Amino acid sequence: MDASSAGKVHTIPFRLQNGKVLVKGRVNGKDVEFTLDTGAEHTILSMRTADRVGVRPIVTTLSAGVGEVGLRGLQVSYLETLEIGTLKVRNVRCMIKNPPLGGMPTAETEAFSPLALGLSAEVDYARRILTIADSLSDEPADVELPLRMNRLATVRGVVNDDRHTNFVVDTGGEVLSISAATARMLLAPPKPVRIRLRVYGTSGWDPEAYLLPGVHLTFDEALRFRDASIVVLDLRAPSVLLGYQIGGIIGHTVLSKYRVAFDLERSVLRLTRP
């Protein structure tokens, strides 16, 4: 971390667009707009932006996300400098989305996660303010959950009152979802009502996605969903890549109702109503 940034609290304004938190940054001294994506392990650049800012690939690796492609090849490189507001870090590992996916309704975008840099973060959706720091203030919250950081930030949830599973807390995701594997365990042998959905993610379209009504989800006494309609996604590929079973994702539709603090120092997720 740059000496001018170390140990400081960085307050950065953001804008919301289509459920995405967008912040202005700079890569190698050139302007880049990033999506705040706590579901990303590394800083992500599109192929076009990587060419524009002079980032050249070093080696190829595998990544995975929601979508029928599942595991996809990406290029690995590093950024000489990454700046987000007053935060400046050097020699940052990044992924380049090359080859890019075709047939998507929107172009692939740039993304970064403070958590991947080992920093805590607070997203104030009401005030449109992102705070990044080594240490956040330990303030009272409406919901406080143990936070596990194993490549991605996860919390434990209970599905239908008896099945405990891991949920990724993903500011880059849009909805509250469970995995197809979790849904199969809940519903065997009865066949539920399935409402087909058109859903795409970082690995393309998910042809098996559907909406499942009547699901109970509990994270805390103050964060419960009863008889909710929940999106079911195929999360097998990212689970294989991460090495543990992802049971679901907590996305924008839930997080945007709170001030969300990812406190890595204390290993807690705090949700505070505005």
Q: What topology does this entry show?
A:
Layout: E1 10-13, E2 15-17, E3 20-27, E4 30-36, E5 43-46, H1 47-53, E6 59-64, E7 71-84, E8 87-97, E9 111-112, E10 120-124, E11 129-133, E12 143-146, E13 148-150, E14 152-159, E15 163-169, E16 177-179, H2 180-187, E17 195-196, E18 199-201, E19 204-206, E20 210-220, E21 223-233, H3 236-242, E22 248-250, H4 252-255, E23 259-263, E24 268-272
Verbal overview:
- 9% of the residues lie in helices and 50% in strands.
- β18 and β19 form a beta hairpin.
- The chain contains four helices and 24 strands.
- The strands form four sheets. Strands 2, 3, 4, 5, 6, 7, 8 and 9 form an eight-stranded mixed sheet that branches. Strands 1-11-10-23-24-12 form a six-stranded antiparallel sheet, with no helix packed on it. It has a six-stranded mixed barrel with strand order 14-15-22-16-21-20.
- It folds into two domains: 124 residues, Acid Proteases (Cathepsin D, subunit A, domain 1), CATH 2.40.70; 130 residues, Acid Proteases (Cathepsin D, subunit A, domain 1), CATH 2.40.70.
- With 274 residues, the protein is mainly beta.
In short:
By secondary structure, the chain is mainly beta. The chain has four helices and 24 strands.
Give a quick set of tags describing it.
Cathepsin D, subunit A, domain 1; mainly beta; 4 helices; six-stranded antiparallel sheet; 274 residues; eight-stranded mixed sheet; 24 strands; 2 domains
Q: Quickly count the domains.
A: 2
Using the CA coordinates, give the radius of gyration: 18 Å
User: What CATH first level of the largest domain would be assigned?
Assistant: Mainly Beta
What is the number of helical segments per DSSP (H or I, 4+ residues)? 4
Please, what is the CATH homologous superfamily of the largest domain?
Acid Proteases
Order of helices and strands: EEEEEHEEEEEEEEEEEHEEEEEHEHEE
Looking at the structure, the CATH topology of the largest domain is Cathepsin D, subunit A, domain 1
Give the total of beta strands.
24
